[in-house]
Specification:
CATH class: Mainly Alpha
CATH topology: Growth Hormone, Chain: A
Structural class: mainly alpha
Oligomer: single chain
Shape: elongated
CATH architecture: Up-down Bundle
CATH superfamily: MFS general substrate transporter like domains
Largest sheet: none
Helix content: over 70%
Number of domains: 1
Distance between the termini: 54 Å
Number of helices: 7
Strand content: under 5%
Length: 223
């Protein structure tokens, strides 16, 4: 794998780490403690349905928006970062009693669903666009990093004493994920520009060569 592609891959991994931390936090703390304790076990299933439905709906809307935005995934990636950051901030802002009301839990589930849609749909489209020749390798590495982070995050959260560390972890990792994506996007734009310049130079040289050849043939025919 070329060095620039490796740099892009390393820059994209933090976003997958961020989603691994966010999703584990959602399952471990929000569903496992907040929803379970404040609304009961039966409401956990309802929240999961809301989360999944929001993800499907936003995936459809996100695809429509991306087509209108000249196929740029950056606005949607930024939206995904906002969703993850909001999930962390709400824990720092509200107590479990305040967060566990049905109205806030529904909004929380919709926010998580939108973040899931960006990760599963838009961010994976970024990988396909950035790694046209090494797509399988990129998918494998990023998926492994997300899965590994999810498992480690469950263990990490179980040892934390205060809930503020939960939200802080989500906020910090999501911020690093956004920065990593923006750096990877800048590298990819530079690669595309260099490739375009190289193609124009090659076509110009080819055109000049063809004209020179035609001139020589004309002179040869004349004499």
């Amino acid at each position: 794998m070329p060095s620039d592609m490796l740099k892009k891959l390393l820059c994209l991994i933090p976003y997958h780490v961020a989603w691994g931390c966010t999703n584990s936090f959602w399952v471990y703390y929000i569903l496992g403690e907040v929803v379970h304790e404040e609304q009961g076990l039966e409401y956990v299933g309802i929240v999961c349905v809301i989360d999944f439905s929001a993800s499907l709906a936003f995936s459809y809307l996100g695809n429509k928006f991306t087509k209108c935005a000249s196929s740029s995934q950056t606005p949607m990636i930024i939206w995904g970062w906002l969703c993850m950051t909001t999930i962390g901030l709400l824990v720092l802002t509200f107590s479990n009693d305040e967060l566990g009301t049905r109205r806030r839990i529904v909004g929380y589930a919709i926010t998580h669903g939108m973040g899931r849609a960006v990760y599963e749909n838009n961010h994976k489209a970024v990988i396909a666009n950035f790694f046209t020749e090494h797509e399988t390798v990129a998918y494998s590495v990023t998926s492994f990093s997300k899965t590994l982070t999810s498992g480690v995050a469950f263990i990490y959260y179980s040892f934390l004493v205060t809930r503020n560390y939960y939200g802080g972890t989500v906020i910090v990792t999501s911020g690093l994920g956004l920065v990593g994506y923006l750096v990877a996007s800048a590298i990819n734009k530079r690669e595309v520009a260099d490739e375009y310049t190289s193609m124009r130079s090659s076509s110009s040289v080819s055109l000049t060569s063809d004209r020179t050849s035609d001139s020589l043939m004309f002179v040869a025919d004349y004499f």
